[in-house]
Design a protein that fits this description.
Elements: H1 2-9, H2 13-22, H3 39-49, E1 53-56, H4 76-80, E2 98-99, E3 102-103, H5 107-115, E4 133-136, H6 146-158, H7 164-167, H8 174-184, H9 191-196, H10 215-221, H11 223-235, H12 245-249, H13 257-279, H14 289-292, E5 309-310, E6 320-323, H15 331-347, E7 352-357, H16 360-367, H17 376-383, E8 388-393, H18 400-409, E9 418-419, E10 437-438, E11 442-443, E12 472-474, E13 476-477
Parallel strand pairs: 6-7, 6-12, 7-8
Antiparallel strand pairs: 1-4, 2-3, 5-10, 8-11, 9-13
Helix pairs in contact: 1-2, 8-13, 10-11, 11-13, 15-16, 15-17
Length: 478
């Protein structure tokens, strides 16, 4: 899949070569055969990449109007059910319906989309100043990674196989889980498996050296393996009378989730160690399995939280302080809240802004300029318009005004926003620089279009302008 993503978005020699060989001049994948040892695999990977990718719309010169997913993750081809044969001679780019950074669609086209449930007014505005960018939907930042691709493909299997959640969980090391998955699917290089391939050999278990070696014997029936399972089962106060993976994995039905996860990890680790002993052709007690029988469970306690005293300081001068509201605890919602606050500040002509949020992940995303792909284009457009932009993080304990607003916002209807000019009537307490709270504060700076001399990391000494004495405060809840 990594090669497929590189072919679609890369600019290196390999990507350009593959595009020229397997795509037409207009960017459409060929439908006839060309000899290649890797193209078939890349073509299959593209079937997984295309449904899980979408576009951040820039000037529209790269996006195919008909085939690419630019309508909130869907394409015109998908919405109207058009085949490749029907679109054979249609190669229009999205830039055709973009003019001066705005959508330029005909009324008939809008009505056709509305009939299919697509509201054109909810589409993100294009940004003609930048190029189009393909993003990977499973990743919050829109960056393609092997890890996110692996997890996305694995989700399909979780819905089909009931025991998958016991193998693919955080309690089991990924390497152990992968090996266990293969063993359950009978993917192991045993002597019996070699014989099924037409290779005749004398088969004998390398552990007990008594019977024919097959996977079921190695994992469950071998006398030495039974000793392992007897010891493991005794640690969990259960019996080792199981003869298969499905019987073993569901053996511990009672107890907490932690106990069940430990049992799953023990079963899968035991299976992995048994196969390791068989592959290395070593005697059972000469390999690492004998060390595993001597293991014990060690409890590691987390460090106690460190309580520190901190003070809240109001901004000085003509600085707008905006709290990003908390729609949910979701990272994407936090980023959305901050961008909406910035857009509202721009609409009111406020170009010096201080954004403070108690969502550290969202703050760090804006500091590193790695925001969620959902708001990436809007963030790029906003930050160029400010003369002064500061993003900082604080704990919820010292940001109780925004926390109160967030709790009020959870009671609003869907897609409803309430904006107050001034202090809301239900907000009785405000942050006071004469009152200390106890928490730990982390602050960061985002610079946008101004020199480093205008930025000082220490807060609140950053604000040294005294042209106006009364600060303006902007709060949101939704």
């Amino acid at each position: 899949m990594k090669l497929g993503w590189n072919v679609l978005n890369g600019g290196d020699e390999f990507a350009l070569f593959m595009k020229r060989k397997f795509f037409s001049k207009k960017g459409i994948k060929i439908r006839f055969h060309k000899p290649s040892s890797i193209w078939k695999g890349i073509e299959n990977a593209l079937k997984e990449i295309n449904p899980n990718s979408s576009w951040i719309i820039g000037n529209g010169e790269t996006i195919d109007l008909w085939r690419d997913e630019w309508l909130n993750g869907r394409s015109i081809q998908q919405i109207f059910g058009l085949s490749e044969f029907q679109l054979e001679n249609y190669t229009t780019k999205l830039s055709l319906i973009i003019q001066d950074g705005q959508w330029n669609m005909t009324s008939r086209f809008k009505d056709m989309l509305a009939a299919k449930g697509v509201n054109v007014l909810l589409l993100p505005s294009p940004n003609s100043e930048v190029e189009d960018a393909r993003i990977w939907n499973p990743d919050p930042r829109g960056k393609f990674t092997i890890k996110s691709a692996f997890n996305e493909i694995r989700k399909k299997t979780r819905n089909k196989i009931g025991w998958s959640r016991l193998v693919l969980n955080k309690a089991v090391h990924p390497r152990v889980a992968n090996n266990g998955w293969k063993l359950v699917q009978n993917c192991a290089a045993t002597q019996e498996m070699v014989r099924t391939k037409g290779i005749h050999l004398a088969s004998r278990c390398v552990v007990c050296q008594n019977v024919t070696e097959d996977l079921n014997h190695l994992l469950w029936s071998c006398p030495f393996t039974k000793q392992l399972w007897l010891w493991v089962a005794s640690k969990f106060k259960t019996k080792s009378n199981f003869q298969s993976f499905h019987e073993a994995i569901y053996k511990v039905k009672q107890g907490s989730t932690k106990v069940k996860n430990m049992w799953s990890a023990a079963v899968l680790s035991g299976m992995k160690q048994v196969m390791h002993a068989a592959k290395t052709k070593a005697h059972m007690w000469d390999c690492t399995l004998d060390k595993a029988i001597m293991w014990g469970v060690t409890t590691h306690f987390g460090r106690a939280p460190c309580v520190k005293e901190c003070e809240w300081f109001p901004p000085q001068g003509n600085i707008i302080k905006a709290w990003g509201w908390q729609l949910t605890t979701n990272y994407i919602a936090e980023c959305e809240a901050i961008v909406c606050a910035l857009e509202l500040a721009i609409s009111k002509g406020w170009l010096e802004v201080w954004v403070e949020s108690d969502a550290r992940a969202a703050v760090m995303a804006f500091v590193k300029d790695q925001v969620s792909w959902n708001v990436s284009a809007r963030w790029t457009s906003c930050k160029r318009k400010f003369t002064y932009l500061l993003v900082s993080h604080t704990w919820r304990e010292s940001n109780f005004a925004a926390d109160t607003a967030a709790k009020r916002g959870t009671m609003l209807e869907r897609d409803v926003s309430v904006i107050y000019d001034g202090r809301p009537p239900w907000l009785f307490n405000l942050e006071d620089n004469n009152h200390n709270t106890y928490c730990s504060i982390y602050k960061s700076i985002v610079s946008s279009g101004f020199s480093p001399s205008e930025i000082d990391v220490d807060l609140p000494q950053t604000f040294k302008s005294s042209s106006l004495t009364k600060p303006s405060i902007l709060r949101f809840n939704s």
